[in-house]
Write a structure and sequence with these properties.
- By secondary structure, the protein is largely without helices or strands.
- It has no helix or strand.
């Protein structure tokens, strides 16, 4: 299945996939799933914003707002390997161009006006037959001050 919007000399076309809303029950679910294979690798799923001659397009992943209960959660989890290792999760910014700086990476929790703010946990996995995973925090090298 290919879903695309048209190109143009001006603004390119937009594409939107939206699940149905409900005023009396839960809203509809939306799902994008790559194909499975019984004899090879599963299909890849790529989500990428557009390139621009000035700035690239932004990519935003946001959990839904809950007006009377919890907001929607976001989970990034690698796939498990039934007989082998699980997949990796990498969060990084791209290298800078010839005249810029690399992007910042920020990990933070939200603030609260009436209760505790959220925790930040960095935890490595345990092992039943080997060593637990390392946690490494390092600062990059540079030729200037700071």
């Amino acid at each position: 299945i290919v879903i695309s919007a048209g190109s143009g000399d001006g603004v390119g076309g937009s594409t939107s996939i939206t699940a149905g809303a409900s005023s009396a029950a839960d809203g509809g679910d939306a799902s994008m799933v790559a194909g499975s294979s019984s004899s090879g690798s599963g299909g890849a799923l790529s989500l990428e914003s557009g390139m621009g001659s000035t700035s690239g397009g932004a990519l935003s992943v946001t959990g839904g707002v809950g007006t009377s209960s919890l907001g929607g959660s976001i989970a990034l989890t690698s796939g498990s390997g039934t007989d082998t290792s699980s997949g990796s999760v990498t969060v990084s910014t791209a290298n800078a161009g010839t005249a810029g700086v690399s992007g910042a990476l920020s990990l933070s929790t939200g603030s609260s006006t009436s209760g505790d703010s959220g925790d930040v946990s960095v935890v490595s996995g345990s092992s039943a037959s080997g060593s637990g995973g390392d946690i490494v925090i390092s600062v990059g090298s540079g030729d200037g001050v700071g």
